[in-house]
Design brief:
alpha/beta; 428 residues
């Protein structure tokens, strides 16, 4: 037997927490057992603990090739039976966040011609016997600006068609949430859509960042009420809290405003605003995470989670279709002609720019020495294909998430352990 390459450890006053990034299993072991593992004295581990460590795959057979298993999983996931369709119904927005990278197009919205082409595209895709599930993400701009007029009728039609084929369809909406009305709630419930909603710090900061165009209303009060209404309707929300050194000291104030929200419906995701870096904040991201966890909220931080690939843009079965029929793979860049990867035709087929597409899909994001050696590989699979297209293999270290993480390995393992405890309580 040997120790897994993907074990991480965190010392606590109750023993050593072991976290395996490949299986996402946890174990609490005595310090003495940790020393035996570290010194490769595995045969000296007490039998009962040894058996548990093998059951949880902290210890594995000598002939196991974990890296090969990760590669096999990647090949399976990148070519799975799911089609990921991202719809961009508008590149207009009702707020103007200072950090937004997108070039907004005022008045842009889905026309009937594009709606029909999108539906035909779904028909074409779902007639493929190898595709069993359609996942639709709404993105923008603000994708809900014309939800009732343009988007909901199209999504309802798609849902009815996919389910008539006895296949599965799921919806996810990435929104600032500020244009959600009570009239939309039953429509969201009909679609069973989940949400990502962003909050920029606590009330004072949020109201400065997300000013509603043409309104004197305080957006923070609106979004808190929207979150409560959505969760009361059964919707799950990934609540993305964007922070920088100025806002991190005030984030905890959000907890008080969410005290009546069903915590099983909320995942707090903490994301540093990409134009900023840690300089001199009085509180650390660990302080903030610990406070949310102590108040019974699940938390995610960094994009370390097991999905089998780095980004959906690496999948052949993925496309992002804009309101005008332009097609992209990456949603983390401007939706411009330069970034365009294809065009949606009236018959529902996509005319891909094959050279650009082939270059992207040929990138194996983890196929470099840095990623191959990394214990976080099963949670990451390397920098995304877009960054590698732009920077090449020589820039992998520059784009590595571990270059930007604001906590130690010890702290990360302990955070994941405490979050798993809350998740288990929710599922109990």
């Amino acid at each position: 037997m040997k120790s897994s390459n993907y074990n991480l450890y965190s010392k606590t006053n109750k023993g050593i927490i072991c976290f395996n990034t490949k299986t996402e299993n946890f174990g609490l072991i005595p310090d003495t057992v940790y020393e035996l593992i570290k010194n490769n004295l595995l045969t000296e581990i007490p039998q009962s603990i040894y058996n548990k460590l093998t059951d949880l795959e902290f210890l594995i057979d000598d002939n196991r090739d974990e890296y090969h298993e990760i590669v096999k999983k990647y090949n399976s996931k990148i070519n799975d039976n799911i089609y990921n369709l991202i719809l961009i119904p508008s590149l207009d927005c009702n707020v103007r966040c200072w950090y937004c990278f997108e070039k907004q197009i005022k008045g842009s919205r889905l026309n009937k011609r594009t709606q029909d082409a999108i539906f035909r595209h779904v028909q074409n895709i779902m007639q493929n016997d190898n595709i069993e599930t359609l996942i639709i993400d709404l993105f923008g701009g603000e994708p809900l600006l014309h939800f009732e007029e343009d988007v909901f009728p199209l999504l309802s039609k798609i849902k009815e068609h996919v389910e008539s084929l006895h296949k599965r369809v799921a919806f996810f909406t990435i929104t600032n949430g500020l244009c959600i009305s009570d009239n939309m709630l039953p429509k969201f419930k009909e679609l069973n859509t989940a949400f990502q909603i962003s909050i920029d710090g606590y009330k004072d900061v949020y109201n400065k960042v997300k000013k509603i165009q043409g309104s004197n209303e305080e957006p923070y009060e609106i979004i808190i009420e929207v979150i409560k209404k959505l969760t009361n309707c059964g919707a799950s929300i990934n609540l993305r809290i964007n922070y920088d050194d100025k806002t991190i000291d005030h984030i905890e104030g959000i907890i008080q405003d969410l005290k009546d929200v069903d915590r099983t419906k909320i995942l707090i995701h903490l994301e540093r605003i990409w134009q900023t870096k840690q300089i001199n904040s009085s509180k650390s991201i660990k302080n903030i995470i610990d406070t949310f966890l102590a108040n019974g909220f699940r938390v995610s931080y960094m994009n370390f989670f097991d999905r089998g690939f780095s980004c959906k843009a690496s999948k052949p079965n993925q496309s992002a279709i804009s309101y005008n029929g332009d097609v992209y793979k990456c949603t983390g860049r401007d939706f411009t002609d330069k970034m365009k990867d294809g065009v949606l035709l009236e018959n529902g087929n996509i005319n891909w720019f094959n050279e650009k597409l082939d270059n992207r899909l040929s990138i194996i994001t983890y196929e470099n020495d840095l990623c191959k050696r990394c214990k976080y590989l099963p949670l990451c699979y390397g920098p995304c294909c877009q960054k590698q297209l732009e920077g090449g293999i020589d820039q992998v270290k520059k784009y590595c998430q571990l270059e930007y993480i604001e906590m130690s390995e010890d702290e990360y393992v302990l955070f994941r352990f405490n979050d798993a405890l809350i998740k288990n309580n929710f599922n109990a």
